Structure formats: structure tokens, C-alpha cells
Amino acid sequence: MNQPHLRPLTSIIITFLAFSTLLPSSEVAAQPSGFNYNESRVPDFSLPELLKLQDGSAVTSAQQWRSNRRPEVLALFQDHVFGQQPNAVPRLRTRERSRKQDALEGRAVRREITVFFSDNDNGPSMDILVYTPADAETPVPCFMGFNFHGNHSVDPDPAIHITTSWVRDDSKRGNIDHRATEKSRGKSSSRWPVEMIVSRGYGVATIYYGDVDPDFDDGFKNGIHSILEPHTTARAGNAGGSISAWSWALSRGLDVLEMDPLVDGSRVSTFGHSRLGKTSLWAGASDERFAMVISNDSGCGGAALSRRRFGETVKRINTSFPHWFCINHRQYNDNENASPVDHHMLMALIAPRPVYVGSAEKDLWADPHGEMLSLFHAGPVFELLGRKGLPNDNVATVNQPIQTDVGYHIRTGKHDVTDFDWTQYMNFADRHLK
Description:
Layout: H1 9-20, H2 25-28, H3 62-80, E1 93-102, H4 103-106, E2 108-116, E3 125-133, E4 140-147, E5 175-176, E6 179-180, H5 194-199, E7 203-208, H6 209-212, H7 225-228, H8 242-258, E8 263-273, H9 275-286, E9 292-296, H10 314-320, H11 344-350, E10 355-360, H12 368-377, H13 379-384, E11 402-403, E12 406-411, H14 419-432
Parallel strand pairs: 4-7, 4-8, 8-9, 9-10, 10-12
Antiparallel strand pairs: 1-2, 2-3, 3-7, 5-6, 11-12
């Protein structure tokens, strides 16, 4: 269990051959060159022990996990991967920007809620776009996650406020000179099937991640860092990066939803895709109020095992996105085996709450099999806490979800969020949030 790749080469080749039936060789060329996409070239490694304290003693009870080992693992991720989240929680102020009682042709109530992080209306703030079923008689369970291009990109409704925050340039999408335009309305609606989610009896809340911390390396001088972090000294090695800032803001969103009369704050699931899937996992690990956690194609630094060095690597992600993680994370560039953690331990921090990992067969960059293995190797903690993990570490069959107290699927297609993904997440939520 703790040495998953210390096994005969024939076993590795068999695993690769099974996996290659899911991943046509033509798809390997579509990924960034110079990286490993061959299962037989995954190096041997040993995963850090989940159920062993740093003093070497074994963890044999749920109480030992909760009181001793879980705090150790959480601190290791804070010091070596994501960094510390901001200690300060400012007095939040909220203001309803808009409300539509008959959104989606009468099926939903649509609201925009501005959350201010200071007493200054012109200071850092974020807008939460919330849809809830119009016919709900009691507060509903809710999915909450960040979007990449502004709340107005989630639905073409012309009444939704267009973000004035920094956005990534994308002329085809309608983002010009780092500003969103009318052309960008509804351009991300395929990833947010709001009507389908509401029709299943769920709320959906989304926030533009650039409201919280613009996604570029500027020395942490804007977003919430500008008000919550002193800039008089050099940053500490374990100071939180953007993922910690985004995760912190998801918790502030949960603060708001806990007070919302239309949402059941005890039944809120985080959701995130790609870098925001990493964020969802870290938010769920850090804040045990989240009832469920969903990672979609989160890959390196998220659901995938770093020691596999399959697809994107620690060095590549730290080089391309130096602002995402803490400075200490860089010492594991081309040195993954030296890290005191791997990402099965991130999954274990979520236990015993349900967690779902979604992968895509063409998304080799995110290491689909490595994402599944993280969830599998978190199993001993789920079992210690009375929950059921993945049944085995076999290569998963495409489009055949596995759901126990954890969930996993690998679907056809590329790095994206699809209706298939959302259907599985809602099926899983039906079991655990309803």
C-alpha cells in the first residue's frame, strides 16, 4: 500500500497497456513536449505514510487521526505546498447587487451578492452569483466554486454585472486589454449548466477568482494580499500563494452562504476545475465546514500524485505559475521524493467527508491515473473513520463512474467540464448531501 511502484516491470507494462487503450498515442502529441506520458516510465517511489505520526508511532484510531495525525498533515501542506492561508478574517460586509425572482424562465431565483473585505467600498471585494430553485420550500444544498472569466460568463443574462477585475486576455472570448466586454457574456455557460443543476434541486454559487487574487505573478501586491499581508519584509517560505488566497475566499463565501435563507450552509460542496480544482481540494482540506469536495481535472498540485512525474511536474508548475504555491514548494523541483507529503494525503485531510475526483482520458497533462491513485491511497484514512474508499487501484473504465463514500470517473474528452461531469457530481451529491 505504501510502496505502490515497487513492483515487477511486467506489472507496470501491463498497467500501461491497459491505460493506453484509453489514451490513444495521437493524444500524447497534443500535450506539452518533453514530459513523460508513458506509464511504464513512471519511476519507482514510496508514498509518505498516512497512518504514522512524525515521531514514528502508528495511528490506530479515529481519535488519533483527528487529534494528532491530521493536524500534522495539514501543517505539512501549509509549510511545504500551498502556504498559510491569511490569519485575519475581516469583518465581512455584504450588499445585494441584484435579484431576479423568475430567472431561467421562472425556474430559479438569481442573486448577485457583493462581499466587501474592508470598510472601503472601493477596496478588495468579490461578487457571488447565486442561483437557487424557485420552487424550493426549504434551504437547498449548494455547489460553490470559482469561475475563470467573470460571473457574467456563466450565463448570458444581460442583467448580470460584468466584472471590472483583471481578466486574462482572450480576444475570441471578448477579453481585451485584461478587461471583460459584452462579448464575453455566457462564454463559460457550457461549464456551468445552471438550469440542469437547479432542476435537480441544488443551488449553485460561483465567484470570479480574479476578484480575490488576479492570476499573475505581481509580488502579491493586489487582491486580498494588499490588505491582509504586510509588505515591509520579505515573504516567508510558507507564506500562502494564490491557491491559498482563493481557498480562503471560498471559506468567506461559505460564511455568507451559512447566513443565506435560501441555502443550507451545512450542505455546501466545493467545486473546481483545473487550478480551481486544486483550490477546491485545499479549501475542503482546510475548512471542515464544507460538506463535500469536488476536483475536476486538477492534476499536478491537486489530485495527482507528484511522485509519479507523469505529465505536468512540480518543477514545471512552479516555473510557469510561481505565485500559486508557497516558496518552500520550489525545493521539490525535480526532487519530489524529498517532499514530506504527496497528494493522497490531501485527499485524506477531507475524510470522512465525501470527495469526488473527475478526470478526462485525453488530459494526460493532468495524469488521470495519478488522480485516481491519490484517491485510492487515501483509503486507509477513510476506512479508519468508518467510510469506504475506492475498491482497488485498477485503471478505471472510461465513462463508468465509481461511487462509494468517495467518487471517481474518467470520461471521454479533453481538459474541460462537461454535462457528464456534472451529472456524476449531482448523482454523488444525491447520496451524500440529500
